[in-house]
Design brief:
single chain; globular; about 240 residues; Four Helix Bundle (Hemerythrin (Met), subunit A); mainly alpha; 8 helices; about 70% helix
């Protein structure tokens, strides 16, 4: 198989099994969190007065990525174009998030998973995770751009030359052409948030269960319930629309 075809196949497989990334983070993070509870001196901010501030900063990292997904899905519907590769005539939005970066969704998801990655407090794991993400998202973005080129041709290539792939250029920002679709925004974004909050919740539970007087963070649990409820409503709506 030619290298070009192999990269395209890898990108497609990674995109269709993207939920494997959260599980990958969870499994490794469990190990590091348990170890940090036994040897807190090996992890920054563990068992210190700044631990709660550090955990809050990690959560804000994830919520900032979620905000990017909300904004992107709310104003554009470009991501849905990749669900049906047989469609030829498509409308690709170049405003809003797509005016400053070619892959705002990948940027948002990456930021979301930095939160539960950083909260482990293990420098080796953080660096390893970021290197993994570089390869993971590079393959997915490669496949996505191939699909857009097949659908849009030279128009997409001209636009792609002017817009950075992953790091936004805010000077190029253009006001969104569409009105904000709040239903689409939350339905397409909250599933990822549920997984991320589930990671935070488990991290907190596993570390607190090892101490004599556990002090669980109720905020993680409440946010997880809300995100799960929104995700469930979206899934039910999709099934109802398919059956009707």
């Amino acid at each position: 198989m030619a290298l070009h075809d192999q990269l395209e196949k890898q990108g497609y497989n990674l995109r269709t099994s993207a939920n494997g990334l959260p599980f990958f983070v969870l499994v490794l993070s469990y190990i590091f969190i348990l170890t940090s509870a036994v040897y807190p001196e090996n992890y920054f901010f563990q068992a210190s007065e700044y631990e709660i501030i550090y955990e809050s900063a990690c959560l804000l990292f994830s919520l900032s990525g979620y905000g990017i997904l909300i904004y992107t899905h709310g104003y554009t519907n470009n991501a849905s174009m990749l669900k049906n590769t047989s469609v030829i005539e498509v409308s690709f939005s170049k405003s809003g998030a797509y005016s400053v970066v070619r892959h705002p969704i990948s940027s948002g998801i990456f930021l979301m998973w930095l939160g539960p990655c950083f909260v482990t407090g293990n420098l080796f794991f953080i660096i390893s995770f970021m290197l993994f993400c570089c390869v993971f998202f590079e393959r997915i973005m490669f496949w996505e751009e191939l699909q857009f080129k097949k659908k849009l041709g030279v128009k997409y290539s001209i636009w792609a030359e002017q817009v950075p792939a992953l790091i936004p250029n805010l000077h190029k920002f253009k006001k969104p052409d569409e009105k904000f679709n709040i239903a689409r925004a939350f339905k397409n974004s909250t599933g990822q948030l549920s997984l991320v909050l589930f990671a935070f919740f488990l991290f907190d539970a596993m570390t607190e269960i090892l101490v004599v007087k556990p002090d669980y963070n109720d905020l993680y649990f409440i946010m997880l319930l809300i995100a799960t409820l929104i995700t469930t409503i979206g899934k039910i709506e999709d099934r109802f629309n398919k059956s009707s």
